[in-house]
Design a protein that fits this description.
mainly alpha; single chain
């Protein structure tokens, strides 16, 4: 857990100020919190995971695992937290591969179940044919 607005900048321990952060992101963010009266531009801020629409600020390139900024705030957020560091890119690619494998497994399971239903149906027809013989018209 991390204080979104650090205690040193007036942040408290209320739940709205606590966010989940990995150790590295917490380390990179440190006590950063923009003080607008200083020389920070409004775009130079860390995005809040619950309050900000992250998708408006950066997007994920699925094939490369890289986060690509859309806005200046997104660029700043990615840079400060070093969200394109090699271990995070590798994690995103592994996660993508695991999701793809899980989806393929679901699809293959559905196909297998359908084939089993067809086999059961055909077996029932064969069993009925063996008992009654062919239909005679």
């Amino acid at each position: 857990m991390d204080h979104f607005r650090p205690r040193s900048s007036g942040g408290g321990d209320d739940l709205t100020n606590l966010v989940y952060a990995c150790f590295r992101c917490n380390l990179f963010k440190s006590d950063f919190y923009p003080q607008l009266e200083l020389d920070f531009a409004p775009e130079q801020r860390i995005l809040h995971p619950l309050r900000d629409d992250i998708g408006r600020h950066y997007l994920l390139r699925e094939n490369s695992g890289w986060l690509v900024p859309i806005t200046e705030t997104g660029r700043f957020h990615i840079a400060v937290l070093q969200l394109n560091r090699p271990e995070l890119v590798a994690y995103r690619l592994r996660t993508r591969e695991e999701r793809a494998k899980a989806e393929l497994l679901k699809q293959l399971t559905r196909e297998r179940d359908l084939q089993n239903q067809i086999i059961e149906y055909l077996a029932a027809i064969v069993a009925e044919y063996e008992v009654t013989g062919p239909d005679e018209d």
